[in-house]
Predict the structure of Glyoxalase.
Amino acid sequence: MDVLGIDEITYGADDLPTCRQFFLDWGMTLAQESADALVFESQNGCRVVVRSSADPALPPAIEAGPTLREVVWGVSSAEVLPKFAERIKDLPGYLNDGKRVGCTDPNGLAVRFQVSQKREVKVECATMNTWNEKNRINQRSPVYDHASPIEVGHVVFFVKDVRACEKFYCENFGFVPSDRYPERGAFLRCADVGGHHDIFLLQPPEARSGLNHVAFTVRDIHEVFGGGMHMSRKGWDTQLGPGRHPISSAYFWYFKNPAGGLIEYYADEDQLDADWEPRDFEPGPTVFAEWAIDGGIDGNTRRQKNAQGPTGKFLTDRQPTHK
């Protein structure tokens, strides 16, 4: 297994103070800070860098406005880097500085590879009781006050040519297709064994380059809920969620991100191996979400946003009526 997952992402953004507060509320740890850059870390050391859009050191943007400028993938050992370098040395934007090897993908995005800097972490996760298996005895499921993301789990981009992008990642770096929207979308994972997708490439009807979202892995469905309601209490806007994806089985909650695109909490995605055979799906709302709440859940009332919350101690309480 050469590529292990995402090690680092870099945004180019216009409002660093707002981004600073957003990622702190998101549950990230602020590791470094300067006038023109912020560096956050997840639980396992996966890094999120936010730099000023005007920073000349940033790779070119794939779209106007705040957006993702670079994705750094972690590899299993130093021996992988020269192998990748040989494959991509003639591609646009080729870079080899001794620590990172990379180039520009067909969509215009700066792609880099480095020996993974992430660390192993152990977290306590909820267990679920099903009809066949009773794994939780004399123990309640957790309720989280906020989320603490474990890592950046996947990235999703709008692309101009989904075939070219899929070929780029699979032939050069060993990515594997999990599922597809024929001629429209490709879900790719880093290796045969792993979560459903590490990158999703989506070619919209009017093909264009852009960031759709960045997804952060949390430990279980309860942390998706707890993190989402915390963000709601902090005043950040839900785009969609909570909900569940039928293709990957993951639970999700999407928010609007001041650093660009959308941002997602997710948990409980399908785990695949070499025996998995990619499926074809026709895009549509019910393919995207088995169920979803539009506008999110209010963190204070614990009800759908803008819905009237309960007024008594029990749901059966009734307000007196006056004649």
The two ends are 73 Å apart (CA to CA). The chain has five helices and 20 strands.
